[in-house]
Amino acid sequence: MKILIVDDDEINLLLTKLELSDELWEVITASNGQEAMELFEIEKPDVVIVDVVMPGIDGITLLKKMKQIRPETPAAIFTGYDQKALSLPDEADAFVVKSSSYKELKEFVKRYAPKNK
User: Which of 35, 50, 57, 115 has its Cα between 20 and 30 A from that of 7?
Assistant: First the structure.
């Protein structure tokens, strides 16, 4: 299974990649919206995890663009903001708050991941 993580914070991006790679998932990363769109079209990830606040294309706009191309791709908003501060866009399948524990994020991936990959 292939997961695309998008976050402009290099440390968060690396830590999240390491955590999800521990589950033996293939993890690809992008540090901005433009790079993410290119990888989304080329790599065709099974799951997408996107930060909200990024320079250029924000995470919500990015998810909308991705879902126009492949609406079946499960996507999570992965942010440090509380869900009460942001409304979950229709394009997102889950809202996961960043923390030192990646348990909730891994549960999202397991719940939405294609069963045959």
Answer: 115
